[in-house]
Amino acid sequence: MDISIIVPVYNTGKKLRKCIDSILNQTYKNFEVILINDGSTDNSLSICKEYKKKDNRIKIINQDNKGSVYARNSGVELAIGKYIVFIDADDWIDREFLNILYNEAEEYSCDIVACNPYLVYGNGLIKRIRTDFTQDIIFENEEIKNEVLSKLVGDTGFPSSLWGKIYKRNLFENYGEYFFRMKFFGEDLALNIELLPKCKKIKVIDKPLYYYRCGGGTTKYMKNLFEDTITTYCIQKDCIDKYYSNQKKERYAKISFIFLNTYKLVLVNMCSTGHDKYKIISKIENQVKDVNIRNAIENLNTTREWFEPEYIEALDNEDCRYLYNWGKKVYNKSKYKIFIKNMLVKLNI
């Protein structure tokens, strides 16, 4: 078996058929599909079983809801292909996706090959190419650290997503140092930071072959968001300490900006709980005392000017009422924007 395709599935029944059809209709045929039903409560499992009856390349793992980290891990443990591909269950791929990425990996002996995605709404009538890569480039050895991994710890330019790539399966031997520390948010970044240093050769290609469904967004509360945000920051610091110690001050400043900017999302997310104002303020009081937030504020240096002064002053002074009011205001605005976007998406389903 050349390729193992891992698809975590959780309540994506309305979109799952398009994903599976795009896989089974690939021009490249020597692959297996591992569908991990992660405790879905809709008809996702029955759809998986329906397709399994049609195609013996499909395997199903049915497990209690453990989250996407452990769903993907279940797929990795079962995979037997030389390469692994991750596809989100609400996305789909071009008919040539496997053919092109597999042949590029084989021809150039690459550990990872990555392509550009289409960003789509609905079933793809509204779409645009996200140009992560403007030309085909091969990175080898030290270039991977300097030109690829570096983009995940302060720089920009290499997508942190697991989808849109093909990975050699041997990269996953004894993996999990960073990946299993995540609950939900930032797992893609954590795994790529873990895998990239193992690579000897990576290729990026400018063809758009993956269809990423943007959707309209959600106001659903993510209970582990704060913890995952902190864990991501700590993983990035660890990576900097290992590979960029001579650039520590500059890179710490950049990831501190990213961390504290992401904390804005945490504030907005907490305001989606419907909890009492003073209960949320109490949570904020605990969060802003966290040693990582205090550390990030100290590390901002030149990136401090990228923030509005009032926000950083509120963090500096632990002004939790200001932070609550800021989060509530942004949340109230976002509800209407998300509603409008979701309506547009539904019109295109």
TrEMBL record:
Domain Glycosyltransferase 2-like: 4-173
Signal sequence segment: none
Pfam families: Glycos_transf_2
Membrane-spanning residues: none
InterPro entries for this protein: Glyco_trans_2-like
Name this protein carries in UniProt: Glycosyltransferase
Domain of life: Bacteria
Organism: Intestinibacter bartlettii
CDD domains, A to Z: Glyco_tranf_GTA_type
Lineage, opening ranks: Bacteria, Bacillati, Bacillota, Clostridia, Peptostreptococcales
